Amino acid sequence: MGIPEQIDVTVNTLGQLCPMPIILTSKRIKEMKSGEVLEVLSNDAGIKKDMPAWCNSTRNEYIGLLEEDGVYKVYVRKR
User: Fold this and answer.
1) Where in the sequence is the domain holding 22, given as residue range(s)?
2) What are the pLDDT digits (tens) for 36-79?
3) Which of 1, 38, 62, 63 is deepest in the core (most CB within 10 A)?
4) Is 45 part of a structural domain of the chain?
5) Going by DSSP bridges, is the β-strand pair 61-68/37-42 parallel, antiparallel, or unpaired?
6) pLDDT category, 4, cuts 50, 70, 90?
7) What CATH number does the domain containing 39 carry?
């Protein structure tokens, strides 16, 4: 998976543990327009399971995840 060509918004949740990355993602994506891409930065490994599950339950598109030096970069497209 590569980084999407366009990232509209980045949410930095570094240092915050579950459930905060998902709560902050949910709050921010509500302010976005349909089709926009959100990048979430997290160092909580739980995001690897939590974000796809959240996307499935909210019907937002889970694009994928990159891991670099213990930082997870997760990409979600707003439905």
Assistant:
1) 9-77
2) 999 999 999 999 999 999 999 999 999 999 999 999 999 999 99
3) 38
4) yes
5) unpaired
6) confident
7) 3.30.110.40
The verdict on whether 55 is a catalytic residue reads no
Residue 61, strand partner residues: 77
Answering whether pTM is above 0.90, one says yes
Total count of domains within the chain: 1
Binned at pLDDT 50, 70 and 90, residue 1 comes out as low
Find the catalytic residue in 18, 24, 41, 65.
18
Task: Write the DSSP symbol of residue 5.
Answer: S
- Let me know if residue 2 belongs to a domain: no
∠ at Cα 19 (17, 24), nearest 5°? 95
b/e burial code for range 10-40 (CB count within 10 A of at least 16 → b): ebebeeeeeeebbebbeebbeebeeeebbbb
